[in-house]
Amino acid sequence: MLRFLLFAAVPLAVLAANDAHAQSGGASAVTSRFIAKAAATDAFEQDAGNLAQKSSQNAEVKAFGAMMVKDHTDSTAKLLAILDKDHLPKPSKMPNPDPNQAKQLTDLVHAPKGQFDRAYVHTQVVAHQQALALMQDYASTGDNADLKQLAKDTEGVVQRHLDMAKKLESQLGGPPRSLGRKED
After folding, report:
1. 174 in the Ramachandran plot: left (φ > 0), alpha (ψ -120 to 50) or beta?
2. Roughly how many angstroms between the first and final C-alpha of the chain, as a whole number?
3. Residue 124 near residue 158 (C-beta atoms within 8 A)
4. Could you give the C-alpha distances from 106 to 47, 81, 87, 132, in angstroms and in order?
5. CB 74 within 8 A of CB 13
6. What domains lie within the chain, and their CATH numbers?
């Protein structure tokens, strides 16, 4: 009788574990962090790119901002498609930049007109260095095959953005001296 109860309990435990996994959206902590960071980064790039198009005095910076909006809108769509396909939890309907990125946006909004371009381009260098590290890390250590492939495919785009931002920063005279953030 004891053996029967033990064998009856095993399938129930497996079902309970599967149910708990399903309720968590089926994503590991590593994958959940990647999804959240990738979505926040895209939101930041879209918001900052829109701001650059509106506030910049430089045609190249405006064009770079427009490219950021387009490319990061595209990467968000690819991320959401994978999340749908793999039944993974989606970020909120309107992902927001993380708190540091939100502060950077606030700094950009309040940047003096003559300093906006340098400040924006510098935030792009820093943001793309962080995004590249995120993509490289998940591509090598992530646990969802489709998201790993997305991260790997996105690395080249992020590297291209980083190279362009560095070139713009150099053309504008280097990083600004007055933002007061630790990454300056």
Report:
1. left
2. 70
3. no
4. 11, 31, 35, 23
5. no
6. 29-171 (1.20.1260.10)
How many whole angstroms separate alpha carbon 35 and alpha carbon 12? Answer: 31
Query: Which of 108, 125, 96 minimizes the C-alpha distance to 37?
Result: 96
Mean pLDDT of 133-158: 97
Question: What is residue 178's predicted lDDT score, i.e. its pLDDT?
Answer: 60
The amino acid sitting at 33 is R
Please list the alpha-helical segments (H only) found in the chain: 2-23, 29-55, 59-85, 99-109, 116-141, 145-171
Q: Is 157 exposed, middle or buried (0-12, 13-18, 19+ CB in 10 A)?
A: middle
pTM of the model: 0.80
Q: So what's the pLDDT on residue 138?
A: 97
Distance CA 109, CA 139 (A): 34
**Residue 94's pLDDT is what?**
64
Per the CB < 8 A criterion, the answer to whether 129 and 162 are in contact is yes
